[in-house]
Amino acid sequence: MSDVTLQNFEPEVIEASRQAPVLVDFWAPWCGPCRTLGPMLEKLEAEADGQWKLVKVNVDENQELAAHFGVRSIPHVVAFADGQAVDQFIGVLPESGLREFLSRLTPDPAQLALHEAQTLAAAGDRQAAGDAFQSALALDPGSDAARFAYISFLLDGNALADAEAEFGKLSPQAAQEDAYAALRTRVEAMKGVSDLPDEQTLTSRIAADPRDLPARLDLARLLIARQQYEPALDQLLAIVRTDRGFEDDVGRKTMLSVFDMLGDHPDVVSRWRRQLSTSLN
Question: Which tens digit of pLDDT belongs to each residue from 162-220?
């Protein structure tokens, strides 16, 4: 906890909030409720161990700051994050209310670990990313979203057995999520790759007989396993157009799963959805 004035407000609050949230406690020595709130905030700041920072502004000595933030009654607490005022409250909250207020400002440790894992994975540091994914799941074992991300990461590294083991740790509700079907499709495609003919053989079969739907499906699965999603969609759409009922509508169903795999590319998904819709009409 530190005292802040107009002269040091910029570095102590605005710039500091770009690293971690900052709570500004507007108070005065004569304010009884301020003497109740202040120690509570100081206690919570100590518990937070750097996750957020508390500063105090004496309104009697810093009337310009108080006026700038519309402080008319004290205690008045303003929260800053990323250089901006993002929340506030007036008066004394019970400790439970303060904790709830702070929970909206401070990032969840599991989410931080997940974000770090995804950043490391994107940078190609798979060892560190794997450790970060496991940290995120240790902090929140019930997070299906985090486990979906970890399964996708494992599949990217061809760790098929590990990915399948993680499926067993998902909640019963996870099977209703779009990501579940997408990842299962990818797993099944990867599992079957060793039993499939090579790409050249499949391509030759299709060239010789465009209605060879088993060859088209095998080629689509081969391409999905390689994460070559658009060429796979091309084969699946051909199946839909040729025989909608082939293998219980497998062409359309697999296309929907691939759309979920392409969630980060909405423009691509939109283009192929239009083509699928046109083919179904």
Answer: 999 999 999 999 988 888 988 988 888 888 787 889 999 999 999 999 999 999 999 99
Domain boundaries, the chain: 2-103, 109-176, 193-280
Omega into 11 within 30° of 0, i.e. cis? Answer: no
| Residue that the structure tokens 């998904």 belong to | 269
Q: Which of 34, 77, 105, 233 is catalytic?
A: 34
Place of tokens 């900052």: 22
- Side chain identity at 197, as an amino acid letter? P
Task: Specify the CATH architecture of the domain 193-280.
Answer: Alpha Horseshoe (1.25)
- Do 2-103 and 193-280 show the same overall fold? no
User: Does the annotation mark 34 as catalytic?
Assistant: yes
pTM of the model: 0.58
- 14, 20, 31, 85: the catalytic one is 31
Q: Is-catalytic flag, 58?
A: no
| pLDDT tens-digit readout, 225-249 | 888 999 999 999 999 999 999 999 9
> Is pLDDT above 90 for 262?
no
**Kind and range of the H or E run holding 280:** helix 266-280
Q: Is 177 exposed, middle or buried (0-12, 13-18, 19+ CB in 10 A)?
A: middle
The pLDDT of residue 107 is above 80: no
Which CATH architecture group holds 2-103? 3-Layer(aba) Sandwich (3.40)
Q: Which of 98, 113, 109 is nearest to 45 (CA)?
A: 98
CATH architecture of 109-176: Alpha Horseshoe (1.25)
